[in-house]
Write a structure and sequence with these properties.
Layout: H1 10-20, E1 30-32, H2 42-58, E2 62-66, H3 76-88, E3 96-98, H4 103-115, E4 119-122, H5 126-131, H6 150-161, E5 171-174, E6 189-193, E7 207-209, H7 211-221, E8 226-230, H8 237-245, E9 256-260, E10 263-265, H9 272-280, H10 295-301, H11 305-315, E11 322-324, H12 326-340, E12 343-344, E13 346-347, E14 350-355, E15 363-369, E16 379-385, E17 387-391, E18 395-396, E19 406-407, E20 411-414, E21 419-427, E22 433-440, E23 460-461, E24 464-465, E25 470-477, E26 503-510, E27 522-525, E28 529-533, E29 542-548, H13 554-558
Parallel strand pairs: 1-2, 2-3, 8-9, 10-11, 12-27, 14-22, 18-19, 20-23, 25-29
Antiparallel strand pairs: 4-5, 5-6, 6-7, 13-26, 14-17, 15-16, 17-24, 20-21, 21-22, 25-26, 27-28, 28-29
Length: 560
């Protein structure tokens, strides 16, 4: 490897140490194991980048395995969304797997554990079992069914599988140690009865394995070498290994579980349960709402795969949880879009400008660059006419010397067009400016080669021709929560911090070339920010989402 040891994260150090200790490189295999009960979010993106990144680094296969053991919450639609997100991020999996592929093998192993006296059927209620669990400082109490005969356990367990019992009537528990200091080792549940159709196996099964039982055994079946998960599963590692001890044979790869810290993102929540609550209570418009921290939401908002990968690389992999400011994610969005997004002109808060000395009925198509930072981006033509729109806050009747936009008696250059001078303005009865009357210098056209075209003025404004402007719906998205950690308050719930201004819908006026923009296409509205075409957009109703502003203005807003 070309990287120095210091450049490796601690997970990579673990892999390197294993290789140096004699572990065969050809036996390396990783996996990304999402549960298909919701959409992937930005936290999952870090795990995706870690696992698939390890695969790329070591030229090792990476499985995509859906841990689909709970038919109550899981759907094929979530499976499809997850696959789409991973592909969009730029990764390819070696094989597509499902925990449900292994239901028979898991059942057979459970039967063997019963026969070995290491599992038993418990017929207590969940409340009774909870009361016997004990506390971290007090041992638990054995279930009255813990010493059921092997024959009875086998008979009841098979009847559970066949659908002969109601939900909640029986569970299968591992027989470990009710006095263990690790509460998870106190006879954990392996199977429960569920009469629910599964998205893949339909009604073939009436019992479903618990995550702790299915996960490690699935890793083992797939010969995963390193099973990487977040810190909340650190206490599960002992159970993970105990379950493996029951099935591992010497000639197969034994998976190694290791944990890394989850990275929390400010001004949002990443709990699937809380994200689902936002969806179900119509706080947002679905899992892919551009305000959601889901990968689908970020894609719809206009983020690029590279921006998310770069963000994941920047925050890295750590052993301690940390809150990452969302402005870092926004920075990476700007940095990438600045390179790839063409520049266009749009006016979002228009005021009309009449160029009084411009010939009536005349129009010109002026050339302007698509991206000044990209020599290969080329140029395009935009129409110019007697009446144009500029941004309302680009004009003041009176302003000090540091104001370099348009003011009465002052001059500005219109981007790729002419220098204009504000002569007068018209107001309504409330004093709102309705129209600005300007004159233009005919010799000052950009790129014309005249001396006047080279004349310097301090302000340059974007604009659109009124006669040619495309009317569009503009969705201005901002942070969904006003608090940086909305789900950490003891006296309030996360819903108390919803930002009522997280979405503003306005009408904008855009240059006409954007009528052919495709869904997902990204661009910079000059001086305003980065935008993309929303899937709701049609020929009759163009819809653009603001991805991110040209700079971080949130801190200024918060400090007002």
């Amino acid at each position: 490897m070309s990287e120095t040891a210091e450049s490796l994260n601690f997970i990579e150090h673990i892999v390197e140490e294993d290789l140096q200790g004699g572990y065969p490189k050809k036996a390396l295999r990783f996996r990304f194991p999402p549960e298909p009960n919701g959409y992937l979010h930005i936290g999952h993106a870090s795990s995706i980048c870690l696992n698939f990144g390890l695969g790329l680094r070591y030229n090792a296969p990476v499985n995509l395995r859906f841990d689909d053991t709970n038919p109550i919450k899981e759907e094929k639609a979530f499976v499809d969304a997850i696959k789409k997100d991973i592909e969009w991020l730029g990764y390819k999996w070696d094989t597509e797997r499902y925990a449900s592929d292994y239901f028979q093998q898991l059942y057979d192993w459970a039967v063997e554990m019963i026969m070995d006296g290491k599992a038993y059927v418990d017929s207590q209620s969940s409340e009774e079992m909870a009361s016997q669990k004990g506390t971290p400082t007090e041992a638990g109490v054995d279930s009255p069914y813990r010493n059921r005969s092997i024959a009875d356990n086998l008979e009841i367990f098979e009847a559970m599988k066949n659908g002969d019992y109601q939900e909640g009537s029986h569970v299968l528990r591992a027989k470990i140690d009710m006095a263990s200091q690790n509460m998870l080792m106190r006879d954990p549940i392996m199977y429960r009865v569920l009469h629910k159709a599964h998205h893949r196996t339909n009604t073939d099964w009436c019992i479903y394995p618990m995550y702790d039982w299915a996960h490690g055994e699935s890793d083992y079946i797939e010969e995963v070498s390193h099973s990487l998960c977040t810190l909340e599963f650190a206490m599960h590692r002992e159970l993970y290994n105990w379950f493996l001890d029951q099935v591992v044979v010497s000639d197969k790869v034994r998976p190694k579980q290791r944990e890394f810290a989850r990275r929390n993102l400010s001004h949002t929540v990443v709990s699937k349960r809380k994200l689902l609550q936002l969806v179900e209570q119509d706080v947002v418009n679905g899992w892919d709402d551009p305000r959601m921290p889901t990968i689908s939401g970020l894609r719809r908002r206009g983020y690029s795969p590279a921006a998310i990968r770069n963000f994941a690389d920047t925050i890295g992999i750590a052993k301690r949880e940390n809150l990452i400011d969302v402005s870092l994610l926004e920075f990476h969005a700007r940095e990438d879009l600045n390179k790839i997004a063409p520049r266009v002109m749009g006016v979002l808060d228009p005021v009309k400008v009449i160029i009084t000395n411009y010939p009536e009925g005349k129009e010109e198509w002026l050339e302007t660059e698509n991206n000044p930072g990209d020599e290969l981006a080329g140029n395009r033509k935009v129409p110019f006419s007697k009446e144009i729109y500029i941004e309302r806050d680009d004009f003041k009747e009176e302003a000090n010397r540091k104001y370099f936009r348009l003011k009465l008696g002052g001059e500005v250059r219109l981007k790729s067009a002419y220098i204009i001078k504000a002569e007068s303005c018209t107001k309504d009865i409330d004093g709102n400016i309705m129209e600005i009357q300007c004159t233009y210098d005919p010799k000052s056209k950009s790129g014309s080669g005249t001396e006047e075209s080279m004349r310097k003025v301090k302000g340059t404004l974007h604009w659109v021709s009124v006669a040619h402007a495309l009317k569009a719906e503009i969705r201005l998205y901002d942070r969904l929560f006003t608090d940086e950690s909305p789900d950490t308050h003891k006296d309030k719930g996360f819903m108390d911090f919803i930002n009522d201004e997280s979405l503003q819908v306005i009408t904008g006026y855009l240059e006409p070339g954007l009528k052919d923009a495709k869904v997902g296409e990204q661009m910079q509205f000059q001086r305003l920010g980065y935008f993309c075409v929303d899937p709701d957009s049609t020929n009759d109703n163009l819809v653009f989402n603001r991805t991110v502003g040209l700079r971080d203005t949130w801190a200024k807003i918060q400090n007002k």
